[in-house]
Every structure is written in structure tokens, then in C-alpha cells.
Amino acid sequence: MSTTTKVLTGVWIAAVTVAAFTWLPPAQGFRNPESARIVVFHVPCAVLTFIAFMANALYSWKYLRSRNPLADAKANISAELGMLFAVLATVTGSLFAMEQWGSPWNWDPRETSIVMLMLVYAAYFVLRGSVEEKSKRARLSAAYALLAFPAMVFLIWIFPRIVESLHPTNTLFSRTGLDPAYRVTLWGFFAGLVSVYVWMFRLRLRVELAEARLRERRHSELEMEPIGAQP
Amino acid sequence: MSRSSGWAREAQAVFAKDCLLELRTRVALGAVVLFAVTSVVAAGFALAPPSGVAGDVKAALLWVVIFFAAVAGLSRVFVVEEETRTADALRLAVSPVGVFVGKLAFNTVLMWVLCALTVPLYLVLLEAPVVHWGLFVVVTFLGSTALACATTAVAAIVAKASMRGALFGVLSFPVALPPLLVAIHGTKAAWMANAGWRAAIGDIQVLVGFMLVIVPASLLVFEHIWSD
Amino acid sequence: MTWQIELRRVGKVFNDRPVLRGISASVCSPGAWTILGPNGSGKSTLLRIIAGLLTPTDGEVLYLRNGERLNAQQRRQAVGMVAPDIALYRPLTALENLRFLARARGMHLRDPQLLELLEQVQLRQRAHDPVATFSTGMVQRLKLLTALVHRPPVLLLDEPGSNLDEAGMEFIRLIVREQAKHGIVIVATNDTREMDYGEPLIRLGA
């Protein structure tokens, strides 16, 4: 990523943050209208979490098809970034919930689904940590990511539907309720965050590639005569 | 001498072999049933007298017991093959699809046996207020089958990793959670006089739908797990 | 029917460490060959790759029947393998092990036929005993029988004579000779007593 893009991203995010606290009006209809500004930061993090989860599944599928270690590295990085944004989304969400409903945790379907996502990521990292051989680690973790994917789809999109029929809650975030000023600021922040995501993704990938090159060099230095010569 | 081919025949052979091994050693069933009975008795002690405890708590607890009992035993089918170094013999003789279907059948039957033994005990010891018996049997049957479907491929992953015991619980929980939540929801409906089939029809659809998704997904990735 | 196995620039890497590199070879039935090399040189790994138990990192292994390529299922049916790290089900009896592997392979053999096969490897008397009670030699004979029950054209043996007495070695020699008449035998070994089983095909370094 070029320096200009990085600088622009920084300026953009700073500008949106300032706008969120000054230009954006307090949201009416909340117990604490001022605190509703956090929604602008919270929702983009949550959306990025799900994008990272999709990316993880996609790269896992690519790995199983191609057996290319690069796809495995990308799947792993997607999971790491997904975990990071999941934590950010949960923290910002809990702060908001604390202000609005007096409790940081309410077991609303969306809260449950993000916790489940974090559990999947945690399980994914534990699995990666317990397989020593690299290609095996890549295969098993890709397979697990693809098994967890349909389960998450059920949990996030289907399960709330049958439960909500019993508990009709959660109308706070519905699209129609969103004030235009909020919509602009929220998606403005989202654009900045996507840029950060791409930057971090590339940075992590460069580190992975550099490490791989280092290992390769070490092995070629240790190399002796060709292995498995014909008689 | 004649020869036939097909994964159904292979799966049948694997299933019959696993049943025979289980009868000889009782590794999986012993672990599962002992765990379940112990937890049911522990729950009974902890909640005594059970008459004061709400129905939803009991429904949730029942499925927590079933899930953890499953975690104690469902990974055995694959772990034993790796530990006794028979997995390669199986790989040489049977296609991945045959292995998966055979093992899935075994785990499913194991779940049914587990439920047949522990659910009645649970109902008696915890005075569960079952109202709609037919619905309860259907939900238990589908829920236990769905748990086996969700965790069998995970068991194959775990068998290939180190620290298998702890790993199976950690890995299977997120995958098993949808059927678990839905089964709890359906069980509550079966225990409430004013709920019944009408309230649980969505649960049954989701349980069946989940199996129809997770089994093909497992088949799709199983070859990559099973073959080195 | 002629069978051919072709190794094309086969390589295997474990954790960035190359275990095998650029191995090419071709064998055609009938005959017997050996893969030689000291311990840790990758003999077992190579044999596992030939058997299809391990996917090579580079290159490929082709199985040809009358010049036609076999798919994974046909290849599974064409191979029988005996190796120290491929075990039998110890809690099951000899007959049950044989019955399972025959059935899994799609062979419809009745118990009298299975017992007859056990008779050929002198295990008829112990047919109903669990494999856990068997001696090394008996286990090895049963392994050979289960590897050959589906009459595969290709027999792969990894250190077949280790821990066996003279009689056991003689038995293996007999089986190799018999199989080499119509099919392919590949033996991986480091034992000087086993090197004359066939032509040296591949010699691996340390």
C-alpha cells in the first residue's frame, strides 16, 4: 500500500472520528443520546468481522482446492483480523449496552452470534496450535473452517428468526430507523476501516512471506547432495 | 468368488466392524454412558428437590448433559483407529466416503443408545414435566442424530491433532451449537402445555435442514481430513 | 493384463524439510523390486506415497492397467500393503479381521473359505483367538494374508522380515516369488537378508 493511501486513510479516519463527535447530532429516542455516537464505530467493526469470516472460509476452500500455502496463510490472517474486529465490536457494543440498558450483556441474538464467531476463531487457533506438520495443519484448519461456516450461517441468520418469533426485540439497528447523518458517518467510518483492514492484511502477508523465504534460505544452506538418487 | 463395489457396502462393513470392536472393548459406550449417568445423578443432587426448578432450566440441562456425554465418546471412532495404527489399513481398503458414512452411522447409533439409556433416567430423577410425548421423542431423536452429524467430521480432525481429549470439546461446540440450541428450544415446547407441535415445527425444520447441510459439507471436506 | 507403476519426479516435504526429492522410476509387471536405504532415508515415506497413503508434495504416481490410467478407487483395489505401522485390530480375532477387510474390499467370502485362507498361512487353529494374543510371526502372516485377500496385482512390503525367524523369512520369500510371477512386488528394506528379493529400483541416501 502506498504512503499516500496510508496517510489519506489516517486523515480520513481522523476526520470521520471528529465528525462523529461534533457534526453528528445526538441520537434521539435513546436513554443517553450522546452515547449513541458509538454506533458509528461499532457497526463497521461488526460488519468487518463477518467479512473476515467469509474471507477465512473462502481462502480455506481455495487452499483445499489448490494446496497452495499462500491460501492457507491468507485464511489464517483473515481469522486473526476477524478476531481483532470481533473483540472491537464486542467492546464497543458492550459499552453502548451498558449506557443504554444498564447491563453490558443482554444475550440478544446478535451478541450471541458474535460470541460464537469468536469461539469459532478461538477453536481455529487452538487447532492450528496443536498440529505440528504444516501442510497437515493447513488441511485440518481449512476443513474445520468449512465445517464451522454452515453452522455459523445457521446461528446468525436462521436461529434468531425462530427465537425472535418468541422474543420480538432488537429493532434498534434496523435500517429504516437510521438517521441520514448517521448513515453517512457510519459508512464513512466503514470505508476508512476497510482501508485499515486491507493494509493490515497485506502487512501480515508480507511478514509471512518473508518468514517463508527465510526458512527456505536456511534449508538451502543446509542442503547436501540430492536426496533419493537413482542407483 | 464375486466382487461388489460401492460406498454403501464399504460403510456397512466399517459399521459392522466398529460395532464388533465396541462390543469387545466398550470404549466409547462406557465413556459416554458413565459420563451421562454421572451428570444426571449430579444434576439430581444439585437441584433436589427438582419440583421447584423451572421446566426450561431442566430442558437446557438435559441437552447440556447429552452434549458433554457426546463429547466424551464420539471422537473415539477415529481416535482409536489412529492410536492403534489401524487407520492406514482402513485407508488402503475403504474409500473416504465409505469410512465417513460408516463412522457417522456408528456415532448416530451411539447417540441413540445414549439417549435411550439416560433420557428416561433424567426424566424420572428430575421430574421433567413432559406434556407432548410424541413431540419430545421426535425432538430427542432428531437432536441426537443432528449432534452426531455435526461432530463426526470434527472427530476425524481431532484424531489427527495432538491433545485430542481437550480439543474435541473445543472444536465441536461451535459446530454443534445450532442443533443444541434448537433441540433445547423444541424440548421446552414439548414440556409446556400451551406450546406443543405448533411452537416446535420450526425447530424440527431447522434440525432436519441442519443435517441436510452439515452432512454434505462434512463429506466434501472429509477426504481432505482423512487422506494425508 | 500388464500393470505399470510410474513415479514422476516425486518429492515430499515435511515442514520445509525435503524428505524425498525428484524421484522418477517405472516398473512393469511381472517382477519384484527393492527400495534400499538406511533408516530414516525415506523408504517408508516413498512406499506410502506409492501406496497412495501419502500425497506427494511434488510430482505424481501413476498406475496403469494395459496402458490405461487408474483412478483412486481402482488404485485402492490394485494395491495390497504390509508395513510395521499398519496394524490389525487387536481385540478382534484373526477370522474377524480377515472377514472385515475382505468385506470392505467387496469380496463375498463365506467363513469356510476364509478359514481355508487362514489354513494357508497356518492360522486355522487360532482363527478364533484375538490378534492381541498372537506372536510377531503370526501377526505378520495374517497381515500378508489380509493384504492379499483381494488378489491385488501390486504388493508393497515395508521391512517384511523384521523380527522374524528363518521360517518366517522363508514364508515371505515364497509369497514374494509367487506374486512376482504375475504381478508387481516392491520391497522396502535395509536388511541384507532381504535385498535379493528383487532388482534394486531405488537407492535412497541418508
Low-confidence stretches of chain B: none
The end-to-end span of chain B amounts to 33 Å
How many helices of chain B? The count is: 9
Biggest beta sheet summary of chain B: none
N- to C-terminal distance of chain A? 52 Å
Task: Enumerate the spans of chain A where pLDDT stays under 50 for 5 or more consecutive residues.
Answer: 165-175
Q: What fraction of residues of chain B sit in β-strands? A: under 5%
Helical fraction of chain A: over 70%
Helices and strands of chain B, in N-to-C order? HHHHHHHHH
Structural class of chain A: mainly alpha
The overall pLDDT average of chain B reads 89
If you compute it from the alpha carbons, what radius of gyration of chain B comes out, rounded to the nearest whole angstrom? 18 Å
Q: Give the amount of beta strand of chain A, in percent.
A: under 5%
In the residues of chain B, how many domains can be counted? 1
Oligomer: heterotrimer
What best-fitting shape of chain A do the alpha-carbon axes yield?
globular
Rg of Cα set of chain A: 22 Å
- The amount of helix of chain B comes to over 70%
Largest sheet of chain A, in brief, is:
none
Number of domains of chain A: 1
| Count of distinct strands of chain A | 0
Kindly describe this structure.
The complex is a heterotrimer of chains A (231), B (228) and C (206). Chain A has 231 residues and is mainly α. Chain A has one domain. Chain A has 6 helices and no strands. In chain A, helix 1 runs antiparallel to helix 6, helix 2 runs antiparallel to helix 3 and helix 3 packs antiparallel against helix 4. The longest helix of chain A has 43 residues. In chain A, 32% of the residues are buried. Chain B is mainly α and 228 residues long. Chain B has one domain. In chain B, 82% of the residues lie in helices and 0% in strands. Chain B contains 9 helices and no strands. In chain B, helix 1 packs across helix 6. The longest helix of chain B is centred in the middle third of the chain and has 30 residues. Chain B is globular, with a radius of gyration of 18 Å. The mean pLDDT of chain B is 89. Chain C is α/β, with parallel strands linked by helices and 206 residues long. In chain C, 33% of the residues lie in helices and 29% in strands. Chain C has 6 helices and 9 strands. In chain C, the strands form 2 sheets. A 5-stranded parallel beta sheet of chain C has the order 6-7-8-3-9, sandwiched between helices. Chain C has a 4-stranded antiparallel beta sheet with strand order 2-1-4-5, with helices on one face. In chain C, strand 7, helix 6 and strand 8 form a beta-alpha-beta unit. The N and C termini of chain C lie far apart (37 Å). Classes of the chains: A mainly alpha (231), B mainly alpha (228), C alpha/beta (206). Chains B and C meet through helix 1 and helix 5 of B and helix 2, strand 6 and helix 3 of C.
